[in-house]
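Recall the central idea of this unit: under ordinary conditions, the amino acid sequence of a chain determines the structure it adopts. In this exercise we apply that idea directly, starting from the sequence alone.
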Amino acid sequence: QVVGSSDTRRSSNVEPFAPGPRSAKPAMPEGQKVQTDTEQGSEILRDAFAQSSVAMGKHEDEKDISKHIKVFFDGKFGPNWHVIVGKGYATYATYEAKTHMFFCLPPLNFLIYKMG
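Accordingly, the structure predicted from this sequence is:
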């Protein structure tokens, strides 16, 4: 199901992340901003945070970081994932329901969504 469009420029309407129950998987650090239409604490959101952290540890180039995350998501959740990583960008995109995730792991911002 296609939900609509998303403008991910930084804005004050991004809600702070409220971590769910503790689990063995990494969670978003408290106080960080997350904008998503997925369930808080869902497997897909936990994987987004975990793989973003892993990719930042393995790669310095934003292109390589985004490729790492995309390959993981395409393998685990099926094809057609889009991953944008950077310090400053604007986008206007259509995405499938329950797949849009936008968050910051300083110094980078991450936009991950599925469409297609």
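The helical segments are 43-58, 62-77.
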